[in-house]
C-alpha cells in the first residue's frame, strides 16, 4: 500500500477512535451568501448519522447581518448513544465584489451553548462488560470567514441543466466545558480551540432555492482527553434565500 494511503488510513482510524468519547460536535457553519439589505437566508442540513442543523441569517443593512443557528442529534445504537443540542447567536459583515458583484465575502462572530450526553457500551464476545456515561454542557465563542461565488457552473441531470455555486467557510471555535460528569462523578472541565474548514457546493433549482452538499473537518489545537476533535462535517441539505433586491449603482 502506498505511503499516502497508509497515512490516510491512520488519520481516519484516529478520528474514529477519538470520536468514542468526544464531547464536542461541530455544526454546519452558517454560509448565507447575503447580498442586499432585507435578505433572509435559511438552511437545513442533516448528516448520515442524523445530526440536524438549522441556520438562519438576516441582512439588516447592505453590509451587516445577524444569524441564529441551532442543531440536534438523538441517536441510539447498540454500542453508542448520542444526544447533543446546540444554539448559537452571531453577527457580522458581508460584501459583494467582482465584475458582476457575484462573489461574496462574509465575516461573522458569535457565541453559543451546547449540551452533550454519550453512552458508550463495551462488549466482550457479545456480552456487555462496561458502560460509560459522559454528560457535559459547554459554551463556545467563534469567528468565521466565508468566501463564495454566485458565478455558476453547469451540470446536466436527466437532460436538465442546473447551476452550481461553490464556497468555503473557515471557523475558529473556542469551547469550554462546564458541569462535566463521567458516570455521575464530577470531572475537571476542559477547554480547546478548534479550526473548522468547510467546503460546500450548491445546486441551483431556482433563484431562491438550492440544494447543498457540505464537507469539512475539525482540528483541535490542544491535547484534551474528552473535549477533542472527534467529529467531522458531512451533510446534505437545502438553502432558501428570499428578499434579495437588485443593487443600485
Residue windows where pLDDT falls under 50 for at least 5 positions: 1-20
Annotation, overall tally of beta strands: 12
Q: Order the strands across the largest sheet as they lie in space.
A: 1-2-3-4-5-6-7-9-10-12
Roughly what fraction of the amino acids lie in strands?
over 45%
Number of helices: 1
Distance between the termini: 58 Å
Secondary structure class reads: mainly beta
The average pLDDT score comes to 88
Tell me the CATH architecture: Beta Barrel
Order of helices and strands: HEEEEEEEEEEEE
Top-tier CATH class: Mainly Beta
Topology at a glance:
Blueprint: H1 3-18, E1 40-47, E2 52-59, E3 64-76, E4 80-97, E5 103-124, E6 127-157, E7 160-182, E8 185-186, E9 191-204, E10 209-216, E11 219-220, E12 233-242
Antiparallel strand pairs: 1-2, 1-12, 2-3, 3-4, 4-5, 5-6, 6-7, 7-8, 7-9, 9-10, 9-11, 10-12
Protein name: Outer membrane protein beta-barrel domain-containing protein
Organism: Pedobacter xixiisoli
What does this structure look like?
The chain has one domain: Lipocalin (Beta Barrel). The chain has one helix and twelve strands; from the N terminus they run H-E-E-E-E-E-E-E-E-E-E-E-E. The chain starts with a helix and ends in a 7-residue tail after the last strand. It has 249 residues and is mostly beta strands. Strands 1-2-3-4-5-6-7-9-10-12 form a ten-stranded antiparallel β-barrel. It comes from Pedobacter xixiisoli. This is Outer membrane protein beta-barrel domain-containing protein.
Features:
249 residues, mainly beta, Lipocalin, ten-stranded antiparallel β-barrel, 1 helix, 12 strands, 6% helix, globular, disordered N terminus
Amino acid at each position: 500500500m502506498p505511503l499516502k494511503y497508509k497515512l490516510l488510513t491512520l488519520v481516519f482510524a484516529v478520528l474514529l477512535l477519538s470520536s468514542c468519547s468526544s464531547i464536542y460536535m461541530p455544526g454546519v457553519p452558517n454560509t448565507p451568501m447575503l447580498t442586499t439589505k432585507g435578505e433572509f437566508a435559511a438552511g437545513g442540513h442533516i448528516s448520515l448519522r442524523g445530526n440536524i442543523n438549522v441556520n438562519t441569517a438576516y441582512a439588516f443593512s447592505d453590509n451587516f447581518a445577524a444569524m441564529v443557528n441551532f442543531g440536534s442529534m438523538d441517536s441510539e445504537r447498540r454500542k453508542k448513544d448520542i444526544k447533543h443540542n446546540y444554539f448559537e447567536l452571531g453577527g457580522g459583515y458581508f460584501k459583494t465584489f467582482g465584475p458582476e458583484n457575484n462573489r461574496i465575502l462574509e465575516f461573522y462572530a458569535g457565541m453559543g451553548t451546547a449540551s452533550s450526553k454519550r453512552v458508550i457500551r463495551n462488549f466482550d464476545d457479545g456480552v456487555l462488560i462496561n458502560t460509560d456515561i459522559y454528560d457535559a454542557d459547554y459554551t463556545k465563542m467563534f469567528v468565521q470567514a466565508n468566501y463564495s461565488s454566485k458565478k455558476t457552473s453547469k451540470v446536466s441531470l436527466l437532460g436538465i441543466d442546473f447551476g452550481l455555486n461553490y464556497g468555503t467557510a473557515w471557523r475558529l471555535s473556542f469551547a469550554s466545558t462546564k458541569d462535566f460528569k463521567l458516570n455521575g462523578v464530577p470531572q475537571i472541565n476542559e477547554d480547546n480551540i478548534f479550526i473548522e474548514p468547510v467546503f460546500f457546493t450548491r445546486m441551483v433549482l431556482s433563484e431562491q432555492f438550492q440544494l447543498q452538499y457540505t464537507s469539512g473537518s475539525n482540528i483541535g489545537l490542544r491535547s484534551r482527553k474528552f473535549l477533542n476533535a472527534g467529529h467531522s462535517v458531512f451533510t446534505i441539505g437545502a438553502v432558501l434565500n428570499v428578499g434579495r433586491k437588485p443593487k443600485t449603482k
